[in-house]
């Protein structure tokens, strides 16, 4: 469920649009559902919606196609505009938002691709039937974590899942969320892991470092434990010291099977991510302390680093 509330206005209160299971419901100023409709026939998944005045924009959410429709909420029987914002075979969904970029009083539309798409922002001209006005990449085209558009008035506030705890730090821990990651899970998992690594000189980030020659630690987060796993209870794996050449292992990403853990289990996934990242930074298991992040089993709380782990992280990462 997603609520898009109009900018603050004088009375009377503005209508609100809600989405659920492929349906959009417009609530009137009294909060009453005045009309519901299904913008994309056959699509019952999540929708991205934006409301500006009497204009409603709709894009499919993740796993949907790149179609975008714009409606006048006073006439939902047919869209004002209806187009594919990205390649027709793209299935990451489209985030939408309104802004008045031409200052002509006619709301324009901004779109961004969902997860698996690059950060290709497009602007659609409201004065010209929402024809394509401009197109650019917000950051590295390789970044496929997905874009969330939030537009307030005429300013584009890019609330994107580009998270960094310490830009410019000597070490980088890249959390690579898989396409199955719900957008709502990314920020809290990143936050937990960033908090756990806050004492050290490491930037915990969801932005893929764009220089492949620079070494960095990477934890892939997503998917399920493979059927051929030697341990059917395996929830993650990493090479010990995998972030450093000197440990004699290839630098390969660690893995956390967040789909098996369950995407709603933020604490457990955060533990697993910090644990596997700890391995990459040279840490071994602490089998004696269930409070330790390096305890080899997930507890229903986040835990903390044990003294041995702290000492080694101080050495390998440097104190921030
Ligand atoms: Zn382990």
Find the structural class using helix and strand composition.
alpha+beta
Strand coverage percent? 25-35%
Reported by name, the CATH topology of the largest domain is Methylamine Dehydrogenase, Chain H
Ends distance: 40 Å
How many domains, as an integer? 2
Count of DSSP-assigned helices: 4
CATH architecture of the largest domain: 7 Propeller
Rg from Cα: 22 Å
Indicate the overall shape: elongated
Along the chain, the helix and strand elements come as EEEEEEEEEEEEEEEHEEEEHHH
Tell me the name of the CATH class of the largest domain: Mainly Beta
In this entry the ligands are: zinc ion
Low-confidence spans? 1-13, 151-160
Tell me the CATH superfamily of the largest domain. Answer: YVTN repeat-like/Quinoprotein amine dehydrogenase
Give, in spatial order, the strands making up the sheet with the most strands: 16-15-17-19-18
Note the main sheet.
Answer: 5 strands, mixed
Helix amount: 10-25%
- Report the average pLDDT across residues: 82
Overall strand count: 19
How is this structure best summarized?
With 320 residues, the chain is α+β, with helices and mostly antiparallel strands. It is built from four helices and 19 strands.
């Amino acid at each position: 469920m997603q609520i898009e509330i109009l900018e603050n206005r004088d009375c009377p209160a503005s209508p609100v649009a809600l989405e659920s299971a492929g349906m959009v419901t417009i609530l009137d100023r009294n909060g009453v559902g005045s009309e519901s409709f299904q913008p994309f026939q056959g699509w019952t998944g999540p929708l991205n919606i934006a409301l500006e005045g009497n204009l409603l924009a709709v894009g499919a959410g993740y796993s949907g196609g790149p179609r975008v429709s714009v409606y006048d909420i006073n006439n939902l029987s047919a869209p004002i505009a209806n187009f594919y914002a990205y390649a027709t075979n793209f299935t990451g969904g489209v985030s939408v938002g309104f802004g008045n970029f031409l200052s002509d009083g006619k709301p324009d539309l901004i779109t961004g691709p969902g997860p698996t798409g690059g950060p290709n922002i497009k602007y659609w001209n409201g004065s010209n039937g929402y024809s394509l006005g401009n197109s650019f990449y917000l950051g590295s085209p390789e970044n496929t974590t997905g874009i969330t558009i939030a537009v307030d008035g005429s300013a584009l506030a890019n609330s994107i899942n580009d998270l960094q705890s310490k830009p410019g730090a000597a070490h980088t821990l890249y959390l690579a969320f898989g396409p199955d990651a719900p957008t709502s899970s990314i920020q809290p998992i990143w936050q937990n892991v960033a908090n756990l690594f806050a004492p050290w000189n490491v930037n915990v980030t969801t932005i893929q470092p764009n220089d492949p020659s620079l070494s960095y630690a990477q934890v892939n987060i997503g998917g399920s434990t493979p059927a051929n796993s030697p341990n059917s209870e395996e929830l993650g794996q990493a090479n010990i010291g995998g972030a450093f050449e000197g440990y004699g292992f290839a630098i390969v990403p660690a893995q956390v099977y967040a789909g098996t853990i369950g995407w709603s289990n933020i604490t457990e996934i955060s533990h697993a991510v910090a644990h596997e990242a700890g391995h990459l930074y040279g840490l071994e298991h602490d089998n004696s302390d269930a409070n330790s992040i390096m305890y080899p089993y997930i507890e229903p709380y986040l835990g903390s680093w044990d003294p041995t782990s702290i000492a080694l992280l101080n050495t390998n990462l440097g104190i921030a």
